[in-house]
Amino acid sequence: MATEIEIKWYVLRAISGQEKKVKAYLESELTRQNLSQFVQEILVPSEKVYELRNGKKVVREKISFPGYMYLSADLNNGETLHLLNNAPGSLGFLGEGKTKALKKPEPIKESEINRILGRIEEGNLAQVKPESRYLIGESIKVMDGPFSGFIGTVEEVYDDKKKLNVMVKIFGRNTPLELSYMQVEKAS
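^ that's the sequence the OP posted. Answer follows.
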C-alpha cells in the first residue's frame, strides 16, 4: 500500500559554518539510501558581498542565516527523519522537543518560507553590495582614485548611496571628498 508523500518546509539547525558540508552530506546520503523522494529541496540561503582585501575588490558568499538550513521534506518517514537529525554537523530541527526521538518537528508557516524564498530571489537579482558600514569620526584609508594612500576621517555616511563624505588632510589643509565604499577601507 503506497502512502501519499506530504511535503512541508522545516528548519534544520546546523553547526554554524558547516551548513554547506551538512547539505552535501545529506544530499549524497539521501541518494545513496534511496530516500530522495522524501526531501525535495535543501536550501542554505546566501548572498554575495564585496570585500576589499589588500586594495582589491573580492566577491565572497555570505550565508544569510548562519546555523540554519531550510528543507522541503516529508518527515513521516522514520528513516528520513533519523538521517536528517543525526547527520554530522546537524543539531536537530527547530521546533522539536528536547528528546528528538519523541516529537516530530513543527513545519514553518507558508508565509515565512515565502518571505525567505523571496529574499533569496531578491538577493540573486540585486547587485553585489559592500558588507561593512562606516561610522562618523572613524578613520579610513583611501584605496582607489587620485587620493589613494591618504588617511581621512568620516564626516557623513550615505548608506543608501554607499558613499561617504571624508575629510582628508592635503598639503596641510582639510579637504572634503565624496568617496564610494569601494574606494576606502577602515584604517588599522
